[in-house]
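Notebook entry, structure prediction.
Reason for the run: the old model in the group folder had no record of what sequence produced it. Starting over properly, with the input documented here first.
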Amino acid sequence: MLHPVIEQIAGEYDGRAIVVRCNVDENPTLASEYGVSAIPTLILFKNGERTGTIVGVTPPEEIKKLIDSQL
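New structure, fully documented this time:
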């Protein structure tokens, strides 16, 4: 459900932010490392540090607001 939104945001922020996806079913160790207990979970990093998390389906404007706050 969130995949098209993430793809759109990745295109809008091309060159300013790197957007990656991780299938937690295929990467349970990574999910555990970052405390992912619900899907979808979006985690924002800046300079290698976790700076924000959004859990659940969220409107694109809220996701962009979080990203913009870190750019």
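Summary: Residues 32 and 39 are 13 Å apart (CA to CA).
The old model has been moved to the deprecated folder.
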